[in-house]
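Fold this complex.
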Amino acid sequence: MIPLHQRIRDEIEGLIRSGAWAPGHRAPSETELMAQYGCSRMTVNKAMSALAEAGLIVRRRRAGSFVARPRVHSTVLDIPDIQAEITARGETYGFVLLAAERRPADPDDGDEVELAGEGDLVALRGLHVAGGRPFALEDRLISLAAVPEAAAADFAAEPPGAWLLHHVPWTEAESRISAIGAEPAVAELLALDVGAALLAVERRTWRAGEPVTRVRQLFPGEAYDLIARFGPAR
Amino acid sequence: MIPLHQRIRDEIEGLIRSGAWAPGHRAPSETELMAQYGCSRMTVNKAMSALAEAGLIVRRRRAGSFVARPRVHSTVLDIPDIQAEITARGETYGFVLLAAERRPADPDDGDEVELAGEGDLVALRGLHVAGGRPFALEDRLISLAAVPEAAAADFAAEPPGAWLLHHVPWTEAESRISAIGAEPAVAELLALDVGAALLAVERRTWRAGEPVTRVRQLFPGEAYDLIARFGPAR
DNA sequence: CTCGCGAATATGTCTATACATATTGAACCG
DNA sequence: CGGTTCAATATGTATAGACATATTCGCGAG
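Structure:
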């Protein structure tokens, strides 16, 4: 049984997404919807407030509720877990740990110093492999001040991304996406020509304001797409 | 005056984001919060339902409300309007229309055929310029079946992105982000070496299920970053 | 000791009502 | 004709109560 407020919400959302109600269109008032659905105003209000929160309508007192004009920016981007992504494609996933060391932050690198805080860093380099072929190169720094358990973790057994996900819940994250050419060392590891275009995803995460980790993942440009959608899919 | 349900919501969100309530932590029941804030259950419920909808807590009947473990995927990505982005940086913006033609869809290109529908296409190529230097190359197709007015528009005066935004509200969009090497023609237009890494953003938009436009924007890799954030910023 | 059943609990939904608040449009007055 | 006031309107917030539903816990029977 679908709750009534959800049904109202879904129906109106359908009218908007189908284009039947164009941006700017004025929706019926709560009183009208209340009569239309034979329910109380609170129920209608719950549906309409949810649509407003979702950004589908704009509500103005005395004036009414209007279909919002969608904004170009801020779509939802799926940055999937690499392992999950690969297995979802039906390919076998592997992770090769190329290097792992514990070291203090480079004092010339403000970024590292901030990440390390009072402690050392764990620096990792690893290769994500899909079906026997290199899929992504990952360079990661983990703050031991934030995650002391990382000193003893075996990242060859469990890739650092998955390990962190299980051990350290984060509260904030920032991802930065750019394109760079492959340097010789990187090109060799990814089995590409030097200078080949790579999609670079750099992500930093924090827990309660304290930096936890910074990771830079390099994907061969033609092998990987990031997709962001705005639309009927829920 | 901040509404009470919002205050409750904000306070609990603060406890979660600060890490005071770790993932898995059980929040007080609605009855307890109701006593704590001296309000009715509906008010507490509104706050907690909103937090649940936002994915910050998970609610289970009889069991209670628990702080959710954040998921890696689905962050919010800002895909800004290029013109707005450049002027925000304090640089002068310019758009150079390199080519514009009206033509039927290429029957060998299923993508174009779908976009065109029963009508022709407008095919445009233009260069976004920031402070006198090339910033992005844009190739765009507009469906005249969906937007007949595009046949008469002057895209040299108003860049097609802005023109479309003003004339055709869309209801769905999909963006695809990848990295490619610059081909000779592209490299020359962007004043780069052949093979230089480019960030490619391809976006398609629909209105009420009908394809409206498809645009491919190529940015010099080192000149532009896309940033996605998840965190306390609201 | 285990299984099944019923009671307790926490959330989920909904109603009817009340008052607050922003905004608009129209009536009124200078 | 222009500005001010005021009432109508639509949303915003909140209450108290009611019943529904899923899930867990504990008790008692086998």
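Chain A touches chain B through 59 residues (CB under 8 Å).
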